[in-house]
């Protein structure tokens, strides 16, 4: 008998088609996790879960007695209760590395768009309001030769630094909990403590995981430390910042602008003040969403799932201790 797999938004179609040949797969899209009876029934029987951003909590696991693996189709895994999964000997996997360059491109797109006001000016042209040569009220600021501060010099942080250093001659400063000698050598990146970085950067770029330590790490105090010409970029998770404090800082001119791919609530409420702010450039959490990278992520997640269900070590495990216990 084929093993039961619960697939959850989002697994790319060619990968899902292949999984359906190997397993008894049921695909769910945007369901109400607590109430959908079909979802709960399938969860009760599934040995594997594959998908994006399904909140895997203790309560959900209590309803999944047969589960052996949760294969997340994302690198961030703040949606998973890892200690609870580990306690229950359930494998958790994610999709690191393959999305690094794509996400760095998105972040750099936000940096340039915010600095050069591209969405605002695009709107001016397309709305028929480009009726005369534009003056200083539409000028942007340079990106090249400025100082980029990266908070979270991990894989994506380093790929952003690479673009900034070699593409735009920027000076790189960074902050992580540990020093990163490789980034210092490759990009002449200079370590700064958190407050120093905020005060010195022309662009502050946040790209850490969401953890209890990083939740709300940028708020009123931190925006107050930034230059009033600074542009703040968030590619991490919405909850790493206090969004209402960002809105206030933009309104008061404490910072000049922002570029955001992630939000406290996704999708955003239609009354979110950011929607009406020209100096906030927004994208709908699409950091890794290119055809190539989405397919590669689904493919890696499927490899993880297959391995986990076959009793083999998945390529990109989060809780390796589960494997050590099994071995
Ligand atoms: N917008 C989007 O679509 C996407 C968003 N992301 C987000 O980007 C995050 C990073 O991904 P990736 O670069 O692959 O992950 P990595 O694990 O390679 O890098 C994360 C970095 O954050 C640093 N970090 C962790 N905690 C702190 C802290 N408290 N203060 C400062 N730095 C910290 C870590 O360094 P150290 O341990 O030394 O502190 C590490 O270098 C993901 O977790 C996800 O949330 C990822 C992909 C797409
Ligand atoms: O947000 C996306 C991820 O891969 O993490």
What does this 3D model show about the protein?
It is a single chain. The chain has two domains: 4-98 and 291-326, NAD(P)-binding Rossmann-like Domain (Rossmann fold); 100-282, NAD(P)-binding Rossmann-like Domain (Rossmann fold). The protein has 327 residues and is an alpha/beta fold. The mean pLDDT is 97. The chain has 13 helices and twelve strands. The longest helix is centred in the C-terminal third of the chain and has 19 residues, at 291-309. The strands form two sheets. Strands 8-7-6-9-10-11-12 form a seven-stranded parallel sheet, with helices on both faces. A five-stranded parallel sheet has the order 2-1-3-4-5, sandwiched between helices. The chain starts with a strand and ends with a helix. Residues 75-76, 96, 99-100, 103, 151-157, 175-178, 207-211, 213-214, 235-237, 261-262, 285, 287-288 line the site of NADPH dihydro-nicotinamide-adenine-dinucleotide phosphate. Belongs to the D-isomer specific 2-hydroxyacid dehydrogenase family. Residues 5-319 form the D-isomer specific 2-hydroxyacid dehydrogenase catalytic domain.
